[in-house]
Here is the input.
Amino acid sequence: MGCVLLRSWLVAILAGCVKFLIHQFVFVFSAASAPPVVGWRQCQNKNIERPGARTMKFPASCVPEPDPRYGARFPWSFTWTSGVRQPPLNPGDMANLHERINHLRPLWFEGFQLNVTKSCGVNRTVGASWSLSHVTPTGFRFGGHFLRRCSDSVLTTPLVAFDVNPTTLCSNLLLLYRPVRALGVELALQLQPGESPFVDELSVQYTGLSRTSTVRCSTPGTPDTYRVSVDHLVSLNDRLCIGVEVLCECYRGTYNTNVAFAGRYNRETSTLAATISPGAFDLSYWQKVSNTLQMGSSMIVNQRQNRALGSVCYRLEHADTVIRGSFDSDWTIGFTYGRKLTPAAFTACLSLLFCAPKNTFQCGFRIDLDSNLL
Here is the structure.
């Protein structure tokens, strides 16, 4: 009985081996007689014709085309790519720390103004203005500015700008000179017939790649009254800059010294700037809402004057039209509307200012005429 069972097992094992060998022989023969396999890049959106078979159509591949930025290959997975870091830019000086919010504020004027400008060349411009007002001096003024020359489409210093009142011959004179690229000297004078020149402001400024240092001095008429300030502003990166300013004042023998710290954070569509000192605080925020609308807000606290003021302002631009408006916490509301009239060569501007607590209302109309377009 045991011999019969052993013989049956051996026969079953031998039959299985023979069946396995037959299957392997058939697979190898069919693989050798089949055409070569086409890659996925060759099969994409192409029809493959095999000898003795009908045409086979393959659907479009779900793999996207290679990005031309990476050449003829796909970027590898988990690839480290070096980023781009912008170097620190020059931050400007402390006087222009809140420049973006100041650019939104309306420029108020009252009465009637007529301004005419004429360019005598790339580096020479003359102009005249006539105004009728109860707030600013009424009369006719003549002025202009002249530069040394234009070298390679760049205006070079010295710059001379003047403004003269023909009736009294009182004039304002501004001189700007840069002996080297990084150093600038600016002098503002007030000239009156028969009197010594009055120095309104004298400043020396050093401009580096990522820092600006400025020294300003002004003497308002009397020798025992002057004002001297030294400020330094440096950019830590392409967005953040910080600075410090030291101010020394003397008014009729009374001295006062103050220190202020400042900072500004810039983005492409927003800017936050702040100036802090023991007796004052200034905070401003600018936001670009769209390509035509800019808005901003500011808050100023002055302990010496016992005054705090908050304001919201905006600037709206359309084709040949600029609208500026503001609303202050002391209920002062106003706006300016300026429009360039085409094909005429002048710009008309309207100014309105209203303050209910002070019972004041100011209205102004101005025409800016460019004689070069006539």
Notes: Residues 2-33 form the longest helix (32 residues). DSSP finds three helices and 21 strands in the chain.
